[in-house]
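Let us work through a complete example step by step.
Step 1: write down the sequence.
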Amino acid sequence: MYYLGLDIGSSSIKAALVEMVTGKSMGVVQEPEQEMGMFAQKNGWAEQKPDDWWLYVCKAIARLKKQHNISRTQIKGVGISYQMHGLVIVDKAGNPLRKSIIWCDSRAVGIGNEAFKAIGEETCATNLLNSPANFTASKLKWVKHNEPDSYKNIHKFMLPGDYIAYKFSNTINTTISGLSEGVFWDFKKDTVADFLLEYYGIDKNLVPDIVETFGIQSVVDEQGEAESGIAKGTPILYRAGDQPNNALSLNVFNPGEVAATGGTSGVVYAVTDSLSVKESARVNNFAHVNYKKGATPRIGKLLCINGAGIQYRWLLNNLSVNSYEEMNNLASEIPVGSDGVCVIPFGNGAERMLNNTEIGTRIVNLNLNNHHKGHICRAALEGIAFSFIYGMEIMKSDGITPKVIRAGNDNLFRSEIFANTVATLIEQEIEIYNTTGAIGAARAAGLYKGDFESFGKAIIDNDHVMTFMPLKDKTAYQLAYENWKKELELVFAKEQRK
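Step 2: predict the structure and record it as tokens.
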């Protein structure tokens, strides 16, 4: 018997099967095999059709069942992870009224910034734990202001994962964790943030019913069975945004535990039991998957670094090299500090941790007589690692004291230079696990029983790859980081003066 896990990304849908008893992954598929498209009517906009997600969910389930020769009745529960901050609005018949405004759409930035000033920084930090910024609530306000005909026909708004659960079950609901990522949750009162809805003029009746993150949220109905191939009556047992779910996939639940990801962008996600927020404009704060009303809080502090793996990929595409392996080999021949060459790797849009400043990518201190592509490769890996360290310093100033760091075995953490640099500078072991969001969501379907110990054991037994230990002598790494930070601060000061 199996659990099914779904990861609803903006690039693709991933589906995973795990054994119920052991938590062992049986297989993962991706649909479509090429990236899903996005609609961008204007610069800074990004939209997708919710029913495209559902189409690819159904295709992925069919492929998994065929590959592993299993029947619909052998799947005993479904867990869903999804791209955060997206907005889906439906009418009374449950039909989407427009395309989803997804996470990377920036049209509501001005609306959120205005709300931050009008409501007050202290109220936002104390109650919302965030600036309203470009989150789901601000996107819904944009629809109200710019598309009144659509707004007046809204029955409920949903997050992307809520919509997929609805398509399985014909039941509309959401979670506290989901509402918090849309900045709809008042942590001080532990209820829906009425004051923000009132400020935006949003009808509270548009908020879906709230269910627990773990437990029977809904069950597959006849239409859901006919379209998805999952048996009628199968429960939806778990739902969470992709970053909280990635933390769950790495067994990160308790204060001091930190999850790191190093893909196209980088993420540091740390769990705390404190509602104190000092960095509400640079760090996001959401209810973690194990947050419960009335209990000691479990808050996920999320710091995003836009310019991470995309920088290394750009070098692969534009240097005279054939593979990441070749780049890593070239970089390994260069000493720590890259002989003074620094790469400031922020060329993927505005960086929230740098106060939403567009720093861009800079290569500095390059000597055309002495330096070559090996220096640039090393400097890029170090620059991305240093940006993680810079982010960790911000997290520490916001009250995070890391006790353990766990990371997925993705592109950046496959590099010894990158992982050793991070581990050495933060003086903390980094445990590497070979897992995915879809596998984590599938395993999480079993957490309705509350057995977190067995859940963690399944991850350690099945997924642990290796542990990077901090080097005893970090002098060269510290000197290189200080040089890099000096260059960053010069660039940052220049951008701030513009």
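Step 3: interpret the result. The chain has two domains: 2-245, 251-429+469-498.
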